Amino acid sequence: MVRVVLPHHLRSLAQVGQEVSLQVAGPVSVASVIGALEATYPVLKGTIREHGTLKRRAFLRFFACGEDVSLEPADNPLPDSIANGNEPLLVIGAIAGG
C-alpha cells in the first residue's frame, strides 16, 4: 500500500483524513499514484492534474522522502520507501504571494 498525504482542501473535497492508503498497480510513480488516487476518489479528478494534459496543477507540489519531485517526469519511479509504504508521498499546496 502506498501512503499519500493530501492538503486540507483536497481532504475536505474527498472527505478523507490527512493520509490515505492506496493500492497502486505496476511501477510506483507520481503518475501511477495520482491515477490510483483519482480512481479511488473520483471527486479529485482534475484537481491535482489537468484533465486533458494530465500535467500537475501549478500550485501543487509532490515530495518524496523530503525531495521535491514535482518537476521530474511523472513516470519516474518513486523511492522504495514510498513504494512499500514506509514513507508517504506528500501532495503540498503551494502558497503564492509577495
What does this structure look like?
The chain has 98 residues and is of the alpha+beta class. The chain has a single domain, classed as Ubiquitin-like (UB roll) (Roll), CATH 3.10.20. The chain has three helices and five strands, in the order βαβαββαβ. It has a five-stranded mixed beta sheet with strand order 2-1-5-3-4, with helices on one face. A hairpin with a 2-residue loop joins β3 and β4. The mean pLDDT is 94. This is MoaD/ThiS family protein. InterPro entries: Beta-grasp_dom_sf.
CATH superfamily: Beta-grasp domain
Percentage of residues in strands: 15-25%
Largest sheet: 5 strands, mixed
Fraction of residues in H or I helices: 10-25%
Number of strands: 5
**Do you know the CATH architecture?**
Roll
Cα distance spanning the termini: 39 Å
State the CATH topology. Answer: Ubiquitin-like (UB roll)
Widest sheet: strand ordering: 2-1-5-3-4
Radius of gyration from the alpha-carbon trace, in angstroms: 12 Å
Number of domains: 1
Structural class determined from secondary elements: alpha+beta
Report the total helices: 3
Q: Give the rounded overall mean pLDDT.
A: 94
CATH domain class name? Alpha Beta
Poorly predicted ranges (pLDDT <50, ≥5 residues)?
A: none
Overall body shape: globular
Protein name: MoaD/ThiS family protein
InterPro entries: Beta-grasp_dom_sf
Organism: Fimbriimonas ginsengisoli
